[in-house]
Amino acid sequence: MGQDDTEWKRAAKEVPELRFLKTLVTGLTLIMGVGMVAVVALLWMRLNQPVLPDLPSSIVLPEGVRPAAITFATDRIVVVTQTDQVLVYDRAGEPVGQLQLQP
């Protein structure tokens, strides 16, 4: 158990490449550790954000209209209907405008 490592130390002094290799491996290990901490920190910050923005309590679509897609902009909610009509609402759920898409 208590081996004498003086031969290793002597060999390291005689071969300077070993000292350089030891320093290189130690440096790369430290950099990899810092990188892992950064990745974990970024994931933690990103996953703590809400998935969807706050939605209004209700959005009233025109009679007989069925939504095909809903998109959230910074201050608007955009609803694309199955009849290629685009309905735009504000964050409170009030209609702002509409547009009919041409096929």
TrEMBL record:
- Pfam families assigned: DUF6476
Top-level taxon of origin: Bacteria
InterPro entries from the entry?
DUF6476
Keywords, A to Z, come to: Membrane, Transmembrane, Transmembrane helix
Tell whether Membrane is among the UniProt keywords: yes
Report the transmembrane regions from the record: 20-44
Q: What is this protein called?
A: Uncharacterized protein
Tell me the organism. Answer: Paracoccus liaowanqingii
